[in-house]
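User: I'm new to structure prediction. If I give you an amino acid sequence, what do you actually give back? Let's try with this one:
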Amino acid sequence: MYYSTGYRICAGCNTEIGHGRFLSCMNAVWHPECFRCHACNMPISDYEFSMSGNYPYHKTCYKEHYHPKCDVCKHFIPTNPAGLIEYRAHPFWIQKYCPSHEHDGTPRCCSCERMESRDTRYVALNDGRKLCLECLDSAIMETSECQPLYRSIQEFYEGLDMKIEQHVPLLLVERQALNEAREGEKNGHYHMPETRGLCLSEERTISTILRRPKIGGGRTSNMVTQPYKLSRCCEVTAILILYGLPRLLTGSILAHEMMHAWLRLKGYRTLRQDVEEGICQVVAHMWLENELRLGSSVGASTSSSSSSRTSKRGVRSNFEMRLGEFFRHQIESDTSPVYGDGFRAGYQAVKKYGLPSTLRHIWMAGTFPC
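Assistant: Good question. You get back a string of structure tokens that encode the predicted 3D arrangement of the chain. For your 370 residues, that looks like this:
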């Protein structure tokens, strides 16, 4: 703050300052009442202020507008001991959150992987998983509900000239039943930390979900299961899928497991894990791309006033389309040597030679063509 003794023009109102107090900052001079915050338009009388571009801000206003807030707790993300703003961000959803939420028990949706925010409540499934309400919208909860999806994927395989001749039962199961079946299965590689699908070749009795659970108070209840006896009449006895996942995720897992079934029923040799899982991921990726393409064409011809809860009747909501893109991104960005590297090698082979030629090479050599 200075006292004017000469001819000066205020950078705020473009009038002469005259005699009296003025501010000298930002390479200009100002009437005290003309130097205002770009956010709240109130005069800045503090000794310190913040800037963005060529605009001044109160420090509190600048923090409100530019300091990142946590998408989980809704508070400003704190600075670390070095005075830097440090946060975590989901690579697909760009959900920003405090690093502490990775260790404080904050739930994640078991489908889209987004963290549960303080102003949203996720549904707790019977086996301890949490599901966000947007993923719940298209979730498949019982075996009978999954049969139309199973038939549509069978038609997808027929369109690839890869019809599965043998009837293979499809069962939706809880996490415990899937893990028990995995432990008893001699063949296969399982994607950790959680198995979501399994192609069985052993005889056993499986507890399958007969009636979907009721949802109330943020929890599921009254789910009905029944034992299902699997008899071995071929190399594949059943396909098991974890219940409670959205339609597009359920479908991509099912397309993957059906490729395992196709390879076994066609008599392929025991393949290297990255080759078998890689080609199964390629087919799952192809199915997802097809669904997203169909969803885009349907969405383009559907009125924007349509209900968002129409995903199970064939029309994709905007979120379900985004969810499908996330599942596709998961396949493409997987870092595991078996699933991730296997997919990328298989994808390049199919892109270069086509699926039939790639499968013929796998049959003869047990590897992807170079």
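You can read the tokens as a compact description of the fold. Here is one thing that stands out. Residues 301-313 have pLDDT under 50 and may be disordered.
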